[in-house]
Each structure stands twice: as structure tokens, then as C-alpha cells.
Design brief:
The complex is a heterotrimer.
Chain A: H1 6-14, H2 23-40, H3 67-73, H4 75-78, H5 84-98, H6 112-119, H7 126-141
Helix pairs in contact in A: 2-5, 5-6
Chain B: H1 5-8, H2 12-18, H3 24-34, E1 74-76, E2 93-94, E3 99-105, E4 110-120, E5 129-131, E6 159-169
Antiparallel strand pairs in B: 1-5, 2-4, 3-4, 4-6
Chain C: H1 2-18, E1 41-46, E2 56-61, H2 67-70, E3 71-76, E4 82-85, E5 91-101, E6 104-115, E7 121-127, E8 142-145, E9 150-156, E10 160-166, E11 171-178, E12 181-187, E13 191-196, E14 201-206, E15 212-218, H3 224-227, E16 234-236, E17 239-243, E18 248-253, E19 260-266, H4 270-274, E20 278-279, E21 285-287, E22 293-298, E23 310-317, E24 322-338, E25 345-350, E26 355-359, E27 365-369, E28 377-382
Antiparallel strand pairs in C: 1-2, 1-28, 2-3, 4-5, 5-6, 6-7, 8-9, 9-10, 10-11, 12-13, 13-14, 14-15, 16-17, 17-18, 18-19, 20-22, 21-22, 22-23, 23-24, 24-25, 25-26, 26-27
Classes of the chains: A mainly alpha, B alpha+beta, C mainly beta.
């Protein structure tokens, strides 16, 4: 865990690909399992019409303004009973594991501080906000969700 | 302990339950916060879900409410309905959407992550009703709530029974 | 007077003498029920957990000793239905769904509106679905607001949102998204509040058309891990009394536009704490005409005991925040409600799935209602 020491966290995050068994990675995955997987499924594929597919898609949100905030402010993420650092690790873990190739080249991992700021403002009209962003993704990148 | 002892005809369970209380969610939190980080979860990637090492022991009868994996089940045990502890009865559909908790295996003393999946599409099984709630929380926190019918996204949402699938050992 | 009596006696004597045969019965007679229902009538939800498509609601006279006395009638509630009843008109609302081939096939979700006198479905509002939250413990997942003009339904898909039905127009007029919250607690003039997954609340006021006019977020105010609030309160004069897992009660004022968490006080004395008394059950809180708070309690509680049957019902004066009575139950119970009026009675579902009736003031056990067909009479609804 990278409690407090931000530099140490960064090192771990950056060395992810090489270090698949890192303790943080394991813990992030466990937190995903315990807090998210029930709805989002082990591979992030969700359930048609009920839970959106994250694999091969969720990274696109980071290409449009507000998308980076949105994927943390959805209630499932923002309200999870884990610390800011743990949620940052889960978000980074799921982006890299489910949707690495859709991420912008400039992708910067979430920090605990950023997560802390975002989750204090959870979204209410999640569905409406999502539709706006999906439209922006379509306009900007020409990709649509496979519904 | 469960509400409907008459229907399960298993009164001794009450005694067992009261004497085996653990504040396990709190315990798990403490483990994550303060414990060592040696990963026991034998899988690093979500798309490579493997079974954990066979536990040293898997004590108890899965077809009873007392069985350790049933620590937060609220419904019929598929073991009594033609399925098993981790498989649905013939002709039903397993709901992918579910909730996930943790139960301690008294056999090896480890906390296992358990996925409570409902089997759907037939009238309720009606056998072996259990209602245990360790780690269960009210419906405003769905990802730890066993009060919902979790047959969601299935062809029919009719609830039949519940399985409990080991997803791994919680990191100590 | 005397002569009249004499005539009666003579007449009946003559009838008897004339023939031992019974009069011909009227053909095609169907009973109706008196309005309003007497205070001692309740509606019992048979959740039919092992045959859910045949769930039903039974109108019961809790003074009846045998089934021909206590069973007044019933109406359907398919697949873990949810129930609400109006107090200003003789209408009841059942949120339910059916598959056209039993447990499979096309599914129809609807609100069926029943007339209290005839127990006939008088109207229905067909919904798009599947959306509705399907659960055993189903009070406050449908609620009437705005003088019973709007009916609100809780949905779980697993996104959470509320369907707004205009009961005058008999149609769905809105859906209000929730940030993962549950419960529909009527709030203010024309609004509701819900508890959310980060221990916060959210409140909405609606306009005349059922659209959101005002929305308020209430910061997280309790600890779901250590002391979760039950989503099963008793509401007294617009204040929700929400028992908590560890034995407290959280007051939440629902009179204004937005929910206001108020005082949190303990239901437990020192000795109760040492014996780990806890609130628990499928429905564990209710109130009476004197506005006392009743909470079902069990001993030796702990993590996971929150649905355990209660062996006692404790009675609290909410003004003094003090326990005023302790009612031991003849058999542990999992749910109860309290009838209206000057001599309120506790109607409790015991662990054998029978009903026990207690005098709420004295705590005296006054009736057992059993042998009414194989059923799961989980929740009791007193007449409003």
C-alpha cells in the first residue's frame, strides 16, 4: 500500500506492467472483487442493459472533458468503503487491466488526492451524464458502445 | 440463526450460530489496513480466475445453513435443489450480477472471498432455506446486501436458489 | 315490549314446528368488507417465498380465534410484491410482476390498484421493466406522497432510481435517479429521501408534475461498517426513527424539504449492553397512537445478527428517550406492526410463521392466529 508517501506510490504504479504480482496490484484487484465485481464482473464486461461494459471501452472516457471525473464520481466507485488511496489503486488497476489500449497516451494515474477531491462530489444524474459523455466520445473518436 | 427455523427444521443451528460469531468485516478491514501484504491470492489478473489451492480442509455439509461458506446466504441452497455449492441446478441460469462477501473457513482459518450467485428461471426451489448475515448490510449498500433478488440480467428473473463460489483467499 | 317478545317466540316456534328445512340460499352472493376497516383488522403480506408467483395479501381480524373468524379476504401480490394503502380513499396499491409462463416467458410489471371494500382490482398501471427492486423486506420501497397524489416505486437494476406515478392521471410521470441509495421516506410537502451507499442521504422535492423541483445532498453521517442504520424505520410525526445494528436509534427529521439527521441515542442501558441486546428482525420498528416507539430486540447479538428473531419488544418514550416498557414475546418474532386507535395491539409474525397478538399497553398476549394455509406471513400492515 502506498499510504501517504506519494512518490513510493508512483513507483509502484509505473512499474505495474513489469511487476504483475506487486502487493498493491493484488490489493487493488481484491478491492475490485469485493466492491465492484459483483456488478461489473471479473473482466469488467458487465451485463447488457444493466451494467455497462468497461473492458475495451472505459479508457475512452479519459479522452473527453469531464470523463476522468465521471468514472470516479459514479456512485459504485465514489461511495466504495475504501480509502482514497485504495480507490485510486482500483481505478488505475481497472483502467490498465480492462482498457489499456483505449487510454490516451497522456494517461496519468489517479492519485489519492485527486480521488479524494472527486468522490466528495458524487454524481446524482449518473445516467444523463453518462449519455452526454458517450455522445462526446462518439463525436470525437467515432466509437460507439456495443450495446 | 435464521427466521424460519420451522421451514428448515434445523433448530440446532441456532446454537451453533450464536456461539460462532465473528465481526468479520471489521476484521477484514483491519487486516487490509494493518496486515502484511504477502499476497495469498494466487491470481494476479482478473481474466485468469483460477481456483485457490485446495484448502487443507473444507469442513461441514454444504447442504446445511451452518456450512462455513453460507455465512451470508439468504435463500435456498442449490446443494438441495439439484445443483451444488458452486453449480446451478439443471435448466436454470446463473446470474452474473451478484454480491460478494467473505467467510472464514474453520478448516484452514483463512478468509475466503465468496460470490453469492443466484440461479434463475424456475420457481423457487423451496428446500434448505437459510438466512445468515455476516457482513450483510442494508439495501442502501447493494454490493454487500443479500436482501435483493440478484437474478438481474438473466432471461427470467425468477429466483430459484443460491450458490456460493470461492473467488480466492483474502489477502492477509 | 312484552307482547312483541311473545310474538317473536311464537313465530319462531311456529317456523320450527312447520318445517326443519333450511331456507333456500341466495345464488351468486359475494362478500364485501366494511369501510373503513376496523382498527383491529390488519393486512398480512404472505410473501410465499417458496411459491413467489402466488404471493398474496390477507385481510385479517386479529380478534378472530379460528380461520372462519379471522380470515376476511385476500388479494394477489405476485413475486415479492410491495404494498401501500391510502388513508384518504379506500385504495390499495400492489407493485408486482408476473411471467406469462409461471417463472419464465414474457414479464409484465404493474401497479395493481385494489378497492378495499370489494378487494377487486379496479385499475392498473403497466410499467416498463424489469426494474423494480424485488426483495423480501418491502416496506418503504413504495410510498405515497403529496396527500396520496403520487406513488413512488424503488427500482434496482442494479442502478437505483425511483419511478414517480401520478395517481390522478394513473400514469408514470417521471424517473428520479439515485446515486446508489435505497428506501423512499416521504419528506416535506411533496418529496422523499433515501439513504445512500456512503452513509449519506439524498432528498428531493417534486413539482406538481412529478418533476424534480429541488434536490438536497446530506453529508455522510453514520458508519455502515460499525453501526449501520436499518433502512426500516418507524415514522412518528414526520420524524424517522431508524434503529441501528449496534442498538442506537437515529432520528431523521423528514418534515422539511430535506432530511435532517437529528439526535442519535442508545436503546440500551448498561446491563443491556453487557448482554449484547440488539435490534433486529425483518420489520423491527413501529409506533402507536400515543407516539411511542416500539423496537424488536434480541439478546447475544453481534455481527450478522441483525435479521435475528426478537424475543422482546421494547417500548420507548421518544421525548424522554427512555424505555417505558419491555414486552416479552411468547415466541420469538421476526416482524410486527401496531394497530391504530385507542387500544393498540401488537401483531407479530413469530418464527413458526404464525401471528401473535399482544395488547400494546399492557404487553399481555391476547391471541394466536394460526392454521391459515401454508404461508409466509412476513409483514404486517396495520390500517392507517
Amino acid at each position: 500500500m502506498c499510504t501517504g508517501i506519494r512518490n513510493a506510490c508512483l513507483v509502484v504504479l509505473l512499474s505495474w506492467g513489469a511487476n504483475a504480482g506487486a502487493a498493491d496490484d493484488m490489493l487493488a484487484r481484491q478491492n475490485y472483487i469485493l466492491n465492484c465485481q459483483g456488478c461489473h464482473l471479473p473482466d469488467g464486461s458487465g451485463s447488457k442493459g444493466n451494467v455497462p461494459k468497461m473492458n475495451d471501452f472505459v479508457g475512452y472516457f479519459l479522452h473527453v472533458p469531464g470523463g476522468r471525473e465521471f468514472i470516479v464520481q459514479v456512485p459504485g466507485a465514489a461511495n466504495a468503503p475504501i480509502s482514497d488511496q485504495e480507490l485510486a489503486d482500483v481505478m488505475n488497476w481497472l483502467l490498465l487491466n480492462f482498457s489499456k489500449k483505449e487510454l490516451p497516451a497522456s494517461f496519468e494515474p489517479y492519485s489519492a488526492a485527486e480521488i479524494g477531491r472527486l468522490r466528495r462530489e458524487p454524481l446524482i444524474e449518473v445516467h444523463d451524464r453518462r449519455n452526454e459523455l458517450i455522445a462526446q466520445i462518439r463525436d470525437k473518436l467515432g466509437v460507439t458502445e456495443d450495446k | 440463526m435464521n427466521w424460519l427455523d420451522k421451514l428448515t427444521e434445523n433448530v440446532s443451528r441456532n446454537v451453533a450460530k450464536t456461539s460462532s460469531r465473528r465481526g468479520f468485516l471489521g476484521g477484514l478491514g483491519a487486516m487490509i489496513a494493518g496486515g502484511s501484504l504477502i499476497p495469498l491470492l494466487p491470481v494476479a489478473r482478473a481474466d485468469a480466475m483460477k481456483q485457490p489451492e485446495p484448502p487443507t480442509a473444507d469442513p461441514g455439509d454444504p447442504a446445511t445453513c451452518d456450512y462455513w461458506r453460507n455465512c451470508a446466504i439468504d435463500g435456498y441452497l442449490c446443494s438441495c435443489c439439484g445443483g451444488s455449492v458452486n453449480s446451478c441446478p439443471p435448466g436454470t441460469e446463473m446470474s452474473a450480477i451478484t454480491w460478494i462477501g467473505t467467510c472464514k473457513n474453520p478448516g484452514d482459518g483463512k478468509d475466503y472471498i465468496i460470490s453469492y450467485n443466484d440461479c434463475c428461471g424456475k420457481a423457487p426451489c423451496g428446500s434448505c432455506f437459510c438466512n445468515r448475515n455476516e457482513g450483510d448490510r442494508p439495501t442502501y449498500r447493494p454490493h454487500t446486501s443479500n436482501d435483493y433478488n440478484w437474478c438481474i440480467g438473466t432471461k427470467s428473473q425468477a429466483y430459484h436458489c443460491t450458490v456460493n463460489i470461492i473467488l480466492g483467499v483474502a489477502i492477509k | 315490549m312484552f307482547r312483541q317478545l311473545l310474538r317473536l317466540v311464537l313465530l319462531s316456534g311456529i317456523t320450527l314446528a312447520a318445517s326443519a328445512e333450511l331456507a333456500r340460499d341466495e345464488l351468486g352472493k359475494v362478500e364485501t368488507l366494511p369501510l373503513p376497516y376496523p382498527n383491529d383488522w390488519v393486512i398480512v403480506h404472505d410473501v410465499a417465498f417458496d411459491h413467489m408467483s402466488l404471493g398474496k395479501f390477507i385481510v385479517m381480524d386479529i380478534n378472530g380465534k379460528k380461520i372462519s373468524e379471522f380470515f376476511k379476504g385476500s388479494f394477489d401480490g405476485g413475486n415479492l410484491a410491495a404494498f401501500a394503502q391510502a388513508s384518504k380513499k379506500p385504495e390499495m396499491y400492489v407493485l408486482e410482476h408476473y411471467y406469462d409462463r409461471g417463472a419464465r416467458g414474457n414479464r409484465t410489471d404493474l401497479v395493481t390498484i385494489y378497492d378495499k371494500a370489494t378487494l377487486m382490482p379496479v385499475d392498473e398501471i403497466v410499467l416498463t421493466g424489469p426494474k423494480r427492486a424485488e426483495m423480501l423486506v418491502s416496506k418503504f420501497i413504495i410510498s405515497l406522497i403529496d396527500d396520496e397524489k403520487f406513488l413512488l416505486l424503488y427500482n434496482f437494476t442494479p442502478a437505483t432510481f425511483v419511478t414517480v406515478i401520478d395517481l390522478v392521471k394513473r400514469e408514470v410521470v417521471n424517473e428520479v435517479q439515485l446515486p446508489t441509495c435505497a428506501g423512499i421516506y416521504p419528506t416535506g410537502k411533496r418529496g422523499f429521501s433515501s439513504i445512500c451507499s456512503n452513509a449519506s442521504m439524498i432528498s428531493f422535492q417534486l413539482d406538481k408534475n412529478g418533476k424534480v423541483a429541488k434536490q438536497s445532498k446530506i453529508d455522510p453521517f453514520f458508519d455502515i461498517e460499525k453501526d449501520a442504520l436499518f433502512e426500516r424505520p418507524a415514522i412518528i410525526d414526520g420524524v424517522g426513527y431508524f434503529p441501528s445494528f449496534a442498538g442506537n436509534v437515529q432520528e431523521i427529521n423528514l418534515q422539511g424539504d430535506a432530511a435532517e439527521p437529528g439526535e442519535k441515542w442508545s436503546l440500551l442501558g448498561t446491563e443491556d449492553k453487557s448482554k449484547n441486546w440488539r435490534p433486529g428482525g425483518a420489520w423491527l420498528a413501529a409506533t402507536d397512537s400515543a407516539k411511542r416507539l416500539y423496537v424488536m430486540m434480541h439478546e447475544n447479538g453481534g455481527e450478522g445478527s441483525h435479521d435475528n428473531p426478537g424475543s422482546e419488544i421494547w417500548v420507548f418514550d421518544t421525548g424522554r428517550k427512555a424505555r417505558v416498557n419491555r414486552i416479552p414475546l411468547t415466541l420469538p418474532a421476526i416482524a410486527f406492526d401496531i394497530t391504530a386507535g385507542d387500544s393498540p395491539k401488537i401483531v407479530a409474525t413469530n418464527v413458526e410463521m404464525n401471528l401473535e397478538v399482544y395488547d400494546a399497553a399492557s404487553g399481555e398476549h391476547v391471541n394466536t392466529i394460526k392454521d391459515f394455509y401454508h404461508s409466509w406471513p412476513l409483514l404486517v400492515y396495520a390500517s392507517p
